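Running co-folding for beta-D-galactofuranose.
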Amino acid sequence: MMITRRNMLVTSVAGVCVLATGRAWSAPPPLKQKQTYKVGFAQTESNNPWRLAETASMQDEAKKLGYQLVYTDAASSAAKQASDVNSMIAQGVDVIFLPPREDKPLVPAILNAKKAGIPVILIDRDVDHALAKPGEDYVTFIGSDFVEEGQRVAAWLAKAVNGQAKIIELEGTTGSSPANDRKKGFDDAIKQWSGMQILASQTGDFARDKGRQVAETLLQAHPETTAIYAHNDEMALGAIAALEAAGKVPGKDVIVVSIDGEKDAVQAIIDGKLAATCECNPRFGPKAFSTMKEYAAGEKLPAYIKNSDSFYDSKNAKDVLSTAF
Ligand code: GZL
C-alpha cells in the first residue's frame, strides 16, 4: 500500500498509523481525568527490603490520593505476575503499574492490557523493546539507569584497587532488566583496566541467602578472589556472611561493592564490611502517580523517565543511614 498523507490520516483516524517502515503503530490507551481511580500494582515478590519499600511507597501514595489500589504479589514467579496482570484487566482497573520481573514473559500481558484499553506504566524494571515499545505498547518506563549504576560501581572499585582485582560477580534475577544492564555496565567498564578480571559470574536472584550460597561456592572455586561485585545489597550482605564463614575479613581480604543503598548495607559500610553501594531508590509512589496524572491530563510523556541515584561509601554512609530504606 502506498503510504500517502491521506491513507496515513485515514489509518490514524482508525487509531492506527502505518509508519514509513510499513509497521503499524498505535498509541497506548488514553486515561480519563477522574476524581479517583482503580489502580493495579502487580509486584514481583516481597523477599527483600527494596521490594517492601517500593510496595509501601505505592500503597502510601494511593492512600494519600484516595485511589483504590489492587495489589498482587507474584512470589518470584513471572508467570504468576503475568496472570496477576490479566486478572487486573478482567477486574477493569483504570491503569496498571508494573515492574516486569523479567524482560520478556510479561509482554503478552502488557499487550493484553493495551487491547483492553488499559494503559500500563512500567516502574523499576523495563521490558525488551524488540517485543514491546514505550509510547506505543505501554506509556513509559520510570526507573534507574542500570547500565550507569554498573559503570559507577566499576569506576569506584577500579580507583579503590588501583585497577587490580580478581572479581566474583553476583548477578540479579536472570532475564531482569536491572541484572542485564548492571552486568553490561560493569563488565564493559572494567575492560578499561587490564588488571581487572571477572573470575566467575552467577545469579543469586537478588536474594541474600542465594547470594551467600553462590558466593560460598565461587569463593571455594576461586580462592584468589580479591573483590565481589553484587547487583544488589542483599546478595552483597550474603557474600559478606560467606566471607566471614570462610575466615576471610570483608573489606580487608576481599572488597565488596553493590547497588541499592538499603539500611543494612549502609550500616555494613559504616562497619567497614561493605566498601560502597550505588543508590537505587525504591520509593516510586510519588513519581509513579504524578506521571499517571500527567498522562491523564494529556501531557506528552518521554519514553523513559530516569530516576537519579546517589552513591554511598565511607565518606557519606553515616549521613544517609537514618533515611536509608
Ligand atoms: C531495581 C530493582 C531491583 C533491586 C533489587 O529497580 O528491580 O530488584 O535492585 C530488587 O534489590 O530485588
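Result summary
Confidence is low (pLDDT under 50) at residues 1-14.
The chain has eleven helices and 14 strands.
Job closed.
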